What does this fold into?
Amino acid sequence: MKKLLLMAVLTGGLAFGQSKKVVASDVHWWGYKIAKSAASSHDGTVNVKSGNIIMKGNQVAGGTFVLDMTSINATDLTGESQTKLNNHLKNGDFFEVDKFPTAAYTIASVRKNNHKVYNYIIHGDLTVKGKTHPVSFPAKISYSKGVVSIVSDKFAFDRQKFDVAYKAAMKDVLVKDEVDMLVKVTAK
It folds into this structure.
């Protein structure tokens, strides 16, 4: 009877997948003013608060990443200018971190991609400020010795869909709707 119960538990674990905890991450963002160029942009980081990747065999089958929006940080500036931009990004004009301290991305599916480097397309749902929309991106996924790594290509999402809007008379002229991101996570 014990062997039968143990076999059922092991089989159930394989059917539903194995959860790997995120142990390292690097999430980088770029926002653009007026024209989408390096000269008219700000960039920075945001920390992953928690996360897991669900493996089914040697393949990524799902996962969730929680971003700590209170950690958003412009890395292209220093001193007073950096503090001013960080506070602006955290207030009601953009991410409203007092009301929405976290954002999340949930992997819905992973499909093979014919790209030499970014061998998969990850499809999922991004939730920012309580609004959820699908966001997909190309990624390099590797799995070895119990450690899974996901490295995205640079991808964009439309901040307006999440009500991340600069509340100024000329908001659409001053700030582009696209926010670019590059995500790296490691889980074991």
User: Anything to note?
Assistant: Residues 51 and 65 are 4 Å apart (CA to CA). The longest strand covers residues 18-33.
